[in-house]
Amino acid sequence: MTTETMFGRALKRREDPRLITGRGQYVDDIQIPGVQRIFFLRSPYAHAMITSIDTSAAEAHPGVMKVYTGKDLPAVPVPCGVNLPDSNQKTPPYFMIATDRVRHTGEIVAAVVASDIGTARDAAEKIVVEYDPLPVVVDAEKSVMDGAPQLYDGIDNNITFDWKLGGGDIDAAFAGAEVVIKQRLVNQRLIPNAMEPRAVAGRYDSATGDLTLWDTDQNPHIIRLLICMLTGIAENKLRVIAPDVGGGFGSKIFLYAEQLLVTTITKDLATPVKWVETRSENFQATTHGRDHVSYVEMAFMKSGKLCGLKVKTYANMGAFMTAFAPLVPTFLYGTLLSGVYDLPALRVETIGVLTNTMAVDAYRGAGRPEASYLLERVMDIAADELNIDPAEIRRMNFIKGEFPHMAVTGMNYDSGDYEGNLDKALAQFGYADWRAKQAEAKAKGRYLGIGLSCYIEACGIAPSKMVGMMGGGVGLWESGTIRVHPTGKVTAYTGAHSHGQGHETTFAQLISDTLGVPYDNVEIVHGDTNQVQFGMGTYGSRSLAVGGTALLKSAQKLVEKGKKIAAHLLEANAADIEYKDGSFSVKGSPDRSKAFGEVVLMAYLAHNYPADLEPGFEEQTFFDPTNFTFPEGTYMAIVEVDPETGTVTPLNFYCMDDCGNVLNPLIAEGQVHGGVAQGIGQALYENAVYDENGQLISGSMMDYAVPKITQLPSYTTEFAPVPSPSNPMGVKGIGEAGTIGSTAAIANAVMDALSSMNIRHIDLPLTSQNVWNAIQAAK
Amino acid sequence: MTTITVTVNGKSYTRDVEPRTLLVHFLRENLSLTGTHVGCDTSQCGACVVHMDGVSVKSCTTLAVQADGASVTTIEGLANGTELHALQEGFWEKHGLQCGYCTPGMIMSAADLLKNNPNPTDDEIRHGLEGNLCRCTGYENIVRAVRYAAEKMNTVNAD
Ligand code: FES
Ligand code: FES
Q1: Are the CB atoms for A361 and A287 separated by under 8 Å?
Q2: Coil, strand, or helix at residue A438?
Q3: Is A560 helix (H, G, I), strand (E, B) or coil?
Q4: How confident is the model at residue A675 (pLDDT cuts 50, 70, 90)?
Q5: Average pLDDT for residues A509-514, to the nearest whole number?
Q6: CATH of the domain spanning A16-21+477-623
Q7: Ligand 1 centre from A525 Cα, in Å?
Q8: Strand pairing partners for A580?
Q9: Cα–Cα dist A688/A773, whole Å
Q10: Residue A100 in 3-state DSSP?
């Protein structure tokens, strides 16, 4: 039997048949007999005291089973899992249901359980809540000012942490510099908008005490662990299933109030219950992303050589902090601020600020898009001011030479070829031709812009020891178990979770190669705490680099075990056995061999078997990486700006990604497309806006511009792999690259188009209104 | 309660519904046809698109009572037995889906598009799917998937 190598093949996905025929099983699709529906009544005020809640009319409403308010329920906190070292972090207390005070619109004040959702909603309308409004602050810079409304006692000036990172001699760097570029940059708030809103269903069996939770999340084991720690339910009595999940982009990592409430309520009523988020609720009550205001000073020599970078960032954290929140604008941001450049000195300070808005946490890229945008935007401003071609100023400053390379941030870049990547991109994507076309167009009165962005990110998150040093409350290893059944069929259990990434396909490819079994014989199980050993889940472009490596190592262990069994059967030394194409044979005498199936069967029969070997054919690995991986790449955007209307049309988008070795190019390319779309969305369209009363103005898909198919260009994607030494497959990760690199490329292209108009910078998003205003102001 | 009779994927169903019941909830909750999804509450996303009497409609913006007497096709009824519709095949071949949540609505909208324009340009494909949001794919492979289906359907028709 010969098995074809699966690594590198653009296999179409085995997930798809169920999803294209309407047979996916998302949480709301799961049929639970007798399930009652929950409607959460949410605060319409951004900041108010609750003076009274009268639920009597709602309780009397026909079809209502029970109405809960904060006083009926234990005070269970919504947890933040990070305590940043040396940052004076003060984590605000926030509970699953408000009792006396609300701090953002959408905070839950009551829960109605009824036979159907219409009834629950009707009854909720009969709940009378009296509020005493308090002053509101939504803007981070205003929130830290003396006299601003205070959200929590004991958190002065609403500052939840003040984090600093430095490297090199920053004062000397600036003293020796010839030019300092100063810029205030806004990285606007975004709303992730996974197409499937969140949903949670719970079923409690009072006879056994077993509780099952179906949950839209990216990491069911962490959700289970947190619920158990907070509610006292035993971990062996709670099963969390994250079935088909309709996208996450970070927003489905965290434990929210709703999962805690569904758990508590289903147990209290001993009745199955379900909550399905509406899109309006999703806007208000699912975590947001980004929201930075940064003051940047970047020092250069006139030649374009970089001397140093100072950044002070106000990070709007919202009204409370969910699981990863403090990590995002600090360790996932500051540590990437030197990018692909040989930066001699850096000083960064991030002030985490509480405001009367929804909590901000990881959204695709999480900190790294903010870093990449800041650095790549300011590089272009510098290029413009120093009169250097944007490609050349980058080339001049790239890290060159040997890897690993210790950056000034303390990050140890594993591998890369930054100059080679840029050169490839410029040549293959026709940078010079585009410059010529731009000049031609200009002569005809058309404004084309070309924008470059050279990104780096830290993926394969993360070495547990480093997570500990950063104040994270978890280890970020991953597990992988491979069970080979007596017939030779394989079930593999991964702690990673797929919500669009296609692990059922890619992980099977990986195992097929290493174990030498046909791809079709391998099934992947994920997303169920009762089936999978333990797992940290999927985010931070970690699934293949960390989760895939765990599976790979388990497969390698099985091959080693198989060699011992084969050696016994062939009366040879295990060291003399080689394994190839599903056959164990004695080196040099291929006729003395045992097929994979025979060896596996003997592992279960154990009749004729090595005395010192356990029966069975199953192995488990908990893989903890020793370093991050560092994907990098060059993106080039071509846009046209209409000077009359300010409308930006993205014409082309080119990607040259180094994500290490590519396991499935079809899927990797899809990840780049989707990531780029979200990055362009930030550059041109999306903006989460609260008014000064804390009302979310962009609270629906009518007002918040999730990009449409007509608003995005076609993409050209190429891969330029430099294998990572951080894992045996040499992979790096590709889930977030597109988002991290693309925003600056588009913004730089727009400013390039406007370069003759004396416009230095326009803050995001570059909507026609914002661009038009800038054009008018520059006249 | 109002009694309605609706043919869904070729099968006739008579049910009592509240007048305010939306077609999407009728399909999902009364008939347990959960392939049709709900992605928004403002009629923007298109996750809920089905065909009613051969025309694509957003089932979140259609009342179940409006479907009384009509013939509805959902994603579950698009394939011919085990033989996938050319669009389903195209989405699979071209990696036109990731999480799959938008996919049923996207495919139903694309089917309507191809019925009216069997040979669309890329621009026409994009224009025809403007009412469907996808957060995962960046749309590129959706365009490729629809192009694949159009070519396939045209070849089959030419045979
Ligand atoms: S559910 Fe969004 S348009 Fe129908
Ligand atoms: S595939 Fe996830 S929203 Fe389209």
Answers
A1: yes
A2: helix
A3: helix
A4: very high
A5: 96
A6: 3.30.365.10
A7: 31
A8: A583
A9: 19
A10: coil
Kindly report whether the peptide bond that precedes residue A545 is cis, defined as omega within 30 degrees of 0: no
* Token reading at A431: 């940078």
- For the record, the structure tokens of B141 come out as 């492979």
User: In Å, how far is A363's CA from the nearest CA of chain B?
Assistant: 13
Residue from A242, A251, A370, A230 nearest A322 by CA:
A251
Give Cβ neighbours of residue A430 (< 8 Å, ≥ 6 apart): none
Which tens digit of pLDDT belongs to each residue from A1-18?
Answer: 445 799 999 999 999 999
**What is the tens place of the pLDDT at every residue in B104-139?**
999 999 999 999 999 999 999 999 999 999 999 999
Provide CATH code, domain A32-134+195-247+252-285.
Answer: 3.90.1170.50
Regarding pTM above 0.90, the answer is yes
User: Tell me: the pLDDT tens digits for A171-189?
Assistant: 999 999 999 999 999 999 9
What residues does each domain of chain A span?
16-21+477-623, 32-134+195-247+252-285, 366-459+628-778
Amino acid at A696: L
Q: What is the pLDDT of residue A3?
A: 54
Residue from B31, B59, B88, B99 whose CB has the most chain A CBs within 10 Å, to mutate = B99
Which residue has tokens 């993926």?
Answer: A459
Q: How far is A389 from chain B (nearest CA, A)?
A: 30
Beta strands A490-494; A522-525: pairing state: parallel
Task: Dump pLDDT digits (tens) for A259-286.
Answer: 999 999 999 999 999 999 999 999 999 9
Structure tokens at A696: 């979310």
Determine contact: B148 vs chain A, CB below 8 A.
no
Q: Is B104 in the pocket of ligand 1 (CB under 6 A)?
A: no
Kindly provide the ipTM of the predicted complex, given to two decimals.
0.98
Judge contact between A168 and A366, C-beta under 8 A. no
CB A113 within 8 A of CB A64: yes
Indicate the average pLDDT of chain A. 96
HEC per residue, chain B: CEEEEEEECCEEEEEEECCCCEHHHHHHHHCCCCCCCCCCCCCCCCCCEEEECCEEEECCCCEHHHHCCCEEECHHHCCECCECCHHHHHHHHCCCCCCCCCHHHHHHHHHHHHHHCCCCCHHHHHHHCCCCCCCCCCCHHHHHHHHHHHHHHHHHHHC
Q: Select from A568, A621, A575 the least CA-distant residue to A598.
A: A568
The C-alpha atoms of residue A128 and residue A752 are separated, in whole angstroms, by: 55
Residue ranges of domains in chain B, CATH in brackets: 2-77 (3.10.20.30), 86-158 (1.10.150.120)
Q: Any CB–CB contact under 8 A between A33 and chain B?
A: no
Are both A16-21+477-623 and A32-134+195-247+252-285 of the same fold?
Answer: no
User: Which residues are A350's β-sheet partners?
Assistant: A163, A313
CATH class of the domain whose range is A366-459+628-778: alpha beta
Q: What is the dihedral of CA A40, A43, A48, A49, to 10 degrees?
A: -30
Residue A480 has pLDDT above 60, yes or no: yes
3-state secondary structure of A510: helix
| Host H or E run for residue A493 | strand A490-494
The alpha carbon of A194 and the centre of ligand 2 are apart by a number of angstroms equal to: 8
Mean pLDDT value across residues A741-756: 97
Closest residue to A24, CB basis, from B28, B100, B127 = B100
Interchain contact A12–B (C-beta under 8 A): yes
* Residue B60 Cβ contacting ligand 1 at under 6 Å: yes
Predicted pLDDT of residue A474: 87
Per the DSSP assignment, residues forming a β-bridge with A480 are A494, A621
Distance of CA A171 to the CA centre of its chain: 35
Residue B39 Ramachandran class (φ > 0 left, ψ -120 to 50 alpha, else beta)? alpha
Alpha carbon distances (Å) from A458 to A461, A471, A539, B57: 7, 17, 12, 44
Q: Is B133 in the pocket of ligand 1 (CB under 6 A)?
A: no
